[in-house]
Fold:
Amino acid sequence: MSSTRARPDRRAIALAAALATSTLACSRELPAPIPAASPDDAEPRRGGVLDLATFGDLRALDPANVSDGMAPQILETIFAGLVDYDADGKIQPDIAERWVVEDGGKTFRFFLRPNVRFHDGEEVTADDVKRSVVRALHPSAPNPYSPYYASIVGYADLAAKKTDELVGVEVEGKYVVTFRLTEPDATFLYVLAMLPLRPVCKSAGDRYSDTWHPCGAGPFKLPPDGWQRGHTLTVVRHEGYFRPGLPYLDAVRWTFHQNPSSQTLRFLRGELDVIKDLSAADLLRFQADARWKPFGEYDAERQILGEAMNVRTPPFDNVEIRRAVAKAIDREALQKVRAANLRATNQVVPPGVFGYDPTLEGQRYDYEGALEHMRRAGYPYDPVTKTGGWPHVVPYTVYKMGLQDFTGQVLKQQLERIGIRIELRVVNYPTFIALRGRRDASPFGPGFWMNDYPDAMSFLEPLFHSKSIADEDSSNWSFYSNPRVDELLDQAHRELDDDRRKKLYSEVQRILVDDAPWAFTQNYRFYTQRQAYVRGHRTHPMWVHDLTRTWIDRAAGSVAGRSILSERSFAALLGTSRAAAPARSPREGR
Amino acid sequence: MSTWRGDDRSVSGAAARVSGAASPPVRMRDALLRNTAFRAGLVLVGLLVTLALLGPIVARHDPYTSDFVGGITSENLPVGPSAEYWLGTDRIFRDVFARLATGARISLAIGIAATAIATCVGTVVGVLAGWYEGRALDTVLMRLVDVGLAFPFLLIVMALGAALDRTTATTILLTLGLTGWLGVARMVRAKTLQVRNLDFVVAARALGQSTWRILAKHVLPNVAGPVVVIATLLVAQMILAESVLSYLGAGISPPTPTWGHMLLEGQDYLTAAPWISGAPAAAILVAVLGFNLLGDGLRDVLDPRKT
Structure:
C-alpha cells in the first residue's frame, strides 16, 4: 500500500523542487553579451556557423509546398527568385536583373542575369523558370498559394487539368521570360517575390515529388545529410552564388523543438547566436538591459490582431453591437498583457505594410460611445446597477495557451462593462482553426493575420472580400460581405498606380472601421536578439533574417560553451574547418 | 500521476479481529492526536480549509479583475508580493492571493465531492461484488474494474474532458468521481470477502436476516475504517488530478482560477515573476502532503495490526 500511495507525494515534491530550483537557478541579472573580436568598422570575414533554434518543426522543404511557419526563412536561403523583397519590403531584382511592364500591366517581361548557377552547377535559364512555374502551379503540387497566380493566362485550364501547359508563361530567349496576365494585377510582382514560383534545379523534374532533395540558386545549399528530420537542418554556403563574395557564413544551422526558455539559456551560453522565440518576461529583461539593447531589433509590424465577430450570428448581426464592442476595448490596457510585442492599433493594415493610413481615425476606446451603441442596438446597459445588456452568454472560442488565452480574459472583463458577457471556450489549435473558418460555427473569437506579401491587399482581400467566404476554411472569418468593399478591392487589384491604390485601400478601411466586422486591436512585433559577435545581421520584413550579409566575429577562445560533439559532427558534414577565414571571392573558394 | 488502485495486502491479516478493532471514541481520538503524521496532516489541511473559507473574504482584490494601475510595474511586469498584493499579481495583473484562495475552494470542493462520488460508487460495487462472489454480478463488475484499471487514469479523464463540449467544475468532478472508484471497489470487495465469512455474519444469516439488512448492519460498518483511509488519500489524488488537468488545459476554462492553470500561466514568467507559479505550486504541495499525512495517521490508528 505504501508504494502505491507514495507516488503522488513524490510527484508533488519533485514538481515543487523543480520550480524552486529553476527559480533559484535563473538569476534575475543577465550575463553580459559575448563581445565581438574586431572593431565596429572591421571588414566582414568569411567563415563560421550561425546557430538558430525554433520551437516549431518543418514537414516539407519545397517552394511548391510551403505549409509550415518555419519554412519561408529556410526556403529563402536555398531558393532565389526572379525578384525578391528588400529590407523595406520593396521589390528588388534577384535572378532577373530587370523587367518591363507592358500592355497596361498585363505583360511582365523579365531579363535574367547570365551565369546564375543552381547548386548543382547548372545555369539558370528562362526554360528553368517556366518549368519551375508549371511544376508549382500544376494541380499535382500541394501548393496552397496557387490561387494567388490565377491571373496568369492559362492558369484556369491548368488548374482544371485540361492541359499540362501554361500558355501565359513564354520563353523568349535563353535569358528572357514573359508572364501574360488576363487583367492588370497590382500584386503580381509581390506574389512573384513569394516562394512558390522560385526556380528549382532540373533534378526537381516537371512534377512535384516529396522525395526530391531541395536544390535551387539561393545563397545556401542543403548538403545530402543536412536535414535531420525533427532535429536539425543545416545549410552550407553555395560557392556559386551569383552575388560575388556572398554569403559570408560557412553555414546556418536550425535546431527544432526548442522551447523558448531552453533557447534563452542556450543563447546566454553562446550556443545560439540569434534568438527570436523569447518569452514575454525574458524579452523585457533583454530590453531593460543596456548591454543587450543595442543587439536587439524589432521586425516590421506585419500582423493584425483583433476580435472577429461573425456578422451572420447574433448578437453580431447587429452592427450597433459590433460598434459597441469596437469602442469598448481599451487597447492600451490590452497591450500591456504582452507589452514588448503588442502595439495598439486602430485599423486593419499594420504600419509595416503598404496601405497603412496614419491619418485614418480608426477604431478607438470610447466607453460612453460604446454604451450609446448598446442603447441604439436595443440592449441598454446600466453600469451602476449592472443590469441590461445582451441577455445571453456569448461563447468566445480561443485556443489553448495562446496569447489570446490571456487577452481573451481581459476582453471578457472589458465587455462585461457594457453588458456583453462572454464565456471562453478553450479548444486545441486545429479545432480552433476549423471552427473559425466554418460558417455559423463560432460567433466570436480572436482574429489574427500575417501578410503573405507587404501590401494591404494581403489583409483586405482574404479577410473581408466576399469571395473569401466558404462553408469550410473560410479566411473571411467574420463572413462579412459588402458589395462596395468587393468593388473597391477589385478596383485596387487592377490599379498599378501606388497613390491611387493607397486611396482605394483607405476607403475600404474607413468602411471596415465603421462596419466593424472585427474590432482591430493590436499589431504584433517580433523582437530578435543577437549576440554582440553576430555582425551584419538584419531582420527582414518577410524572411525573419537576411542572412546573406551576416558574419561571425567571435574570438577564438569564446566557443567554450558549444558542445564539442556537435562541432565535430558539423565539421564532418561540411568537410571543412570551422576556423574563420578572410573574405575571398566564391571563385577562389571552389 | 495515478489513482490508488486498491491493494488486497492492506487488509490481509486484519480480518480475524476486525469486528473488535473499533476503539471507543475517546481512546481513538487520543490515539489519533498522539500520531505525528495525523497531527501534521491536520495542521496542513486546516491551513488549506482556512485559506478556502476566509481567503476570498479577506482578500483585498477581486480574483477576476485586472489592475492596470496598481498591479503593474513600470516595465509592464506583474508586481511582486506587497502589502497591497500579498502574493503579487499574475500575468494579467490580477491578485494572486485572491485567485489562490478562490482556487482553494474549487480544488477542495472538487477533491472532496469527487472523492465522495468515487467512494460511494466504489463501496456499493465492492460490497455487492464481494457478497455475491463468483456469481455473474461479481464477474461482470470485476471485469469492468479490470478493464477500467487497465487504462491510465489520466488518459480516461483527459479523453472524457476532450469529448465534452465544454468543461465546468461539475463536469470535472463528475469525470474524476466516476473514473476514480475502481480502486475503492476492488479494495472493498476484498474486505467484504473477509467479513462475509465471520461468525457474526454467518449467525445473522442463520437467524434469517435479509441480505440488505446484513449488508447495512454488519458488512458496511466493518469495511468503513479502510474506506475512510482510502477516501482521505483519494482527496489528495483528486486535487492533484484536477491540477494536472487544468495544467494541461483540459480542466475548467479560464478565467476561473484553478491551481493547475495558475501554474501554467506563470511558467513563462518563472524568472521575472516566480510568485505566479510558486504560490499554486506550494498550495498543491500542501494539499497533497496534508491529505496524505492525514490518511497515513488514520491508517496507523485504524489498522488493527498496529494497535
